[in-house]
Design brief:
Radius of gyration: 29 Å
Helix content: 40-55%
Structural class: alpha+beta
Strand content: 15-25%
Order of helices and strands: EEEEHHHHHHHHEEEE
Strand order of the largest sheet: 1-2-3-4
Shape: elongated
Largest sheet: 4 strands, antiparallel
Number of strands: 8
Oligomer: single chain
């Protein structure tokens, strides 16, 4: 049985009793007409779905239904849009935060089905687990940027990250050791590796990476001088197939 309602596209009932609503959305490269079908147990159900699609088309907000999951989109977005635009450390942080705090929650969901409540649940869970507001801000940035680019690719119409609430970042005042505290600390330090590094840090103000990068040729014992010419830095190797980041330490 086939029926066509006014301004609601084509609606018909299959022999097995299932109702189908169809709407034409254009043509494929060969010129053949392309349709989107909606299925339901009642005519009213499919008519409602079709009505919503027609409203979106009239308001230029229609996005063609897709089975693409957030995870399907996230990794190509990372490789194509972020790898060349952020530093190595930031890129590695994206890997870690996505694998730990984003993809376990929404990775398998269709990207078009993700709402702001799903994003809010991520933030709430991160807060309950004790993550800092600064870390949650990084997660928010990853989500927001990935969805903004998904809009540009016509995968979604709106960014579900908008209108979510994140815990406020309260900046802590930096405190330093007083002279008396430094003297007390120096008095109990041993002459081992850690003790020597702490003494050098207090005496020179050098950064940890600079101290860890020192070699004997940088030390002049006769003149009581050290020459900082290099530092120990963390570098990363990215596995774009298994979506993992591995770190190494190198002297640069």
């Amino acid at each position: 049985m086939s029926r066509r309602g006014r301004n609601e596209g084509s609606i018909f009932q299959r022999k097995d009793g299932l109702w189908v609503a169809q709407i034409q959305i254009g043509h494929d490269p060969t010129g053949k007409r392309k349709f989107i079908s909606y299925y339901g147990k009642t005519r009213r159900e499919v008519a409602r779905k079709l009505e919503n699609s027609l409203a979106d088309i009239n308001h230029n907000t229609f996005i063609q239904p897709s089975k693409i999951t957030y995870e399907d989109w996230f990794w190509p977005w990372m490789k194509t849009f972020k790898k060349t635009t952020v530093g190595e450390t930031t890129y590695a942080r994206y890997f870690a935060l996505a694998n730990l705090h984003i993809l376990p929650f929404i990775g398998k969901m269709k990207i078009q089905d993700i709402k702001n409540i799903h994003i809010q649940n991520i933030y709430n869970t991160c807060t309950d687990e004790g993550l800092s507001p600064a870390t949650i801000k990084h997660i928010h940035t990853i989500l927001s940027q990935s969805f903004e680019q998904a809009i540009n690719q016509n995968l979604v119409f709106t960014n579900p990250v908008l209108k979510t609430i994140r815990p406020p970042i309260r900046r802590k005042e930096v405190t330093v050791l007083t002279v008396e505290q430094q003297e007390k600390l120096l008095s109990v330090l041993k002459n081992d590796t850690i003790g020597t590094i702490i003494k050098l840090a207090i005496g020179t103000g050098a950064r940890l990476g600079e101290l860890l990068g020192l070699k004997w040729e940088n030390v002049d014992l006769e003149k009581h001088e050290i020459h900082i010419t290099q530092g120990l830095v963390r570098t990363y190797r990215f596995d774009d197939i298994n979506h993992k980041a591995h770190s190494d330490k190198n002297i640069l």
